[in-house]
Amino acid sequence: MATHRAVTQLRRGVLEYCVLALLNEQERYGYDLVVELSAAGLLASEGTIYPLLSRLRKDELVSTVWRDSPTGPSRRYYALTDQGRAALDDFSRSWSAFKNSVDHILTRKAQS
């Protein structure tokens, strides 16, 4: 059970940056992000992404634009801002070092 809590906390901690990474590839609408993140096992519920996108917009890490949809109502598309790109770059550098440190500790412990 403790492992499940730890994984949940890790998901919460990296979800924001995974969204920024997906938006770095191309602009997307909310449900598209839900599908991508769910397929990767990073999103448990659709209700998680929209508050996160709202916060990213408020923090000026993403910008939005409404576009007509060929299959229904207009959709809000999200795009990475320069500030969002800088935040993603900072996280990417930190993540690599963090991941390497954790891997080092876990591997060392497994070899003992």
Characterization of the model:
Strand 2 (62-69) and strand 3 form a beta hairpin. The chain has helices spanning 2-25, 30-39, 46-58, 82-111; strands at 28-29, 62-69, 72-80. It has a three-stranded antiparallel β-sheet. It has four helices and three strands, in the order H-E-H-H-E-E-H. It is 69% helix and 17% strand. Helix 1 (2-25) packs antiparallel against helix 4 and helix 2 (30-39) crosses helix 3 (46-58). By secondary structure, the protein is α+β, with helices and mostly antiparallel strands. It starts with a helix and ends with a helix. The protein has a single domain, classed as Arc Repressor Mutant, subunit A.
What is the CATH H-level superfamily?
Winged helix-like DNA-binding domain superfamily/Winged helix DNA-binding domain
Order of helices and strands: HEHHEEH
Looking at the structure, the CATH topology is Arc Repressor Mutant, subunit A
Name of the top-level CATH class: Mainly Alpha
Output the number of helix runs. 4
Can you tell me the residue ranges where pLDDT is under 50 for at least 5 consecutive residues?
none
Distance between the termini: 25 Å
What count of domains describes the coordinates?
A: 1
Give the rounded overall mean pLDDT.
90
Q: Bin the helical content.
A: 55-70%
Strand order of the largest sheet: 1-3-2
Q: Please tell me how large the radius of gyration is.
A: 16 Å
Q: What share of residues are in beta strands?
A: 15-25%
Question: How many β-strands, per DSSP?
Answer: 3
Structural class: alpha+beta
Report the biggest beta sheet as strand number plus sense, adding barrel if it closes. Answer: 3 strands, antiparallel
| Second CATH tier, the architecture | Orthogonal Bundle
| Global geometry | globular
Oligomer: single chain
